[in-house]
Amino acid sequence: MSPTAILEPAQEDQLWQVEQRLVRDHDELPPELVRHEVARARALFTSARITTFVPILVERTARRRLSDSSIGSDSPLTQAMDQSGDYARSMSLRTWGWYTAKQLLADELPRRWAHTRGVAHRAAEVARSLPAEDRQILIAAAWLHDIGYAEELIDTGFHQLDGARYLAARGVPRRVCALVAHHAGAAAVAAVRGLSAELAEFDDEQGPVRDALWYCDMTTAPDGTPVSFAERMRELRARRSPDDPVIQALAGNESERAAAVSRTEELLHSTATLV
């Protein structure tokens, strides 16, 4: 901030707390991005003569920005990303997943991007109930789970498989690729489409992280808002035609989807973090 808006130590501490709170509340996003938005919001008040309410105003402004679908478009983080598109181990999986999904979906498929943002936010909440080593895996998979819908990735037309193959080709850890490949009852859809052998390129781990990804997807509406599993199934049937492979596959995977949701809800109850 400029010398015209020097804050008292207590206000500086409040701003630090604002930053920590926003990093925690938006832990599906790269922390660097959240901090950038806090700094950007703070810069708006450099000429404030009365600084008492600056921390509150910064928090409101940053929260509004962090909820915007265009978040990150002008951040240094976005500008510094590897132009090749390949995953770099010097970068967190969560950061690469967020950036890649944004690049592929935000402009071309804004509604799919809204859903993805909702799934990732839910995944960040659920991840608190998982072992530390699994948290980033879940959040990254949540960001990436629907990238196979992007036009440039379409090969087989089976979005789980097309997305997983794209990720594998870019050096993403095999576990994340497999979670993307098998999310939302993909095996039953692959059987309907005659792509079971191709899907078998990726292992289905059938554990809590896989269940959690299914839960996040199956309890998030197309517009990114939270819904119940029953509501999501009604919406799915209303949106797709009866001859759609996804609908045909429900005879084989709806109970499997429900079981994954139920197991995750039990996990959340057991850790007192139901979302």
Q: How is the topology of this model organized?
A:
Layout: H1 9-25, H2 31-43, H3 54-66, H4 76-80, H5 93-105, H6 110-126, H7 132-144, H8 159-169, H9 174-182, H10 186-193, H11 196-199, H12 208-218, H13 229-239, H14 245-248, H15 250-270
Explain what the structure shows.
The protein has 275 residues and is mainly α. The protein is 62% helix and 0% strand. It has 15 helices and no strands. It has helices spanning 9-25, 31-43, 54-66, 76-80, 93-105, 110-126, 132-144, 159-169, 174-182, 186-193, 196-199, 208-218, 229-239, 245-248, 250-270. Helix 1 (9-25) runs parallel beside helix 3 (54-66), helix 7 (132-144) packs parallel to helix 12 (208-218) and helix 8 (159-169) packs antiparallel against helix 9. The protein starts with 8 loop residues before the first helix and ends in a 5-residue tail after the last helix. The model has no long low-confidence stretch (mean pLDDT 90).
In short:
The chain is mainly α and 275 residues long. It has helices spanning 9-25, 31-43, 54-66, 76-80, 93-105, 110-126, 132-144, 159-169, 174-182, 186-193, 196-199, 208-218, 229-239, 245-248, 250-270.
- Per DSSP, what share of the residues sits in E-state strands of 2 or more residues? under 5%
Form type: elongated
Q: Which regions have little confidence, pLDDT < 50, spanning 5+ residues?
A: none
Mean pLDDT: 90
Q: Biggest sheet, open or closed, and with what strands and sense?
A: none
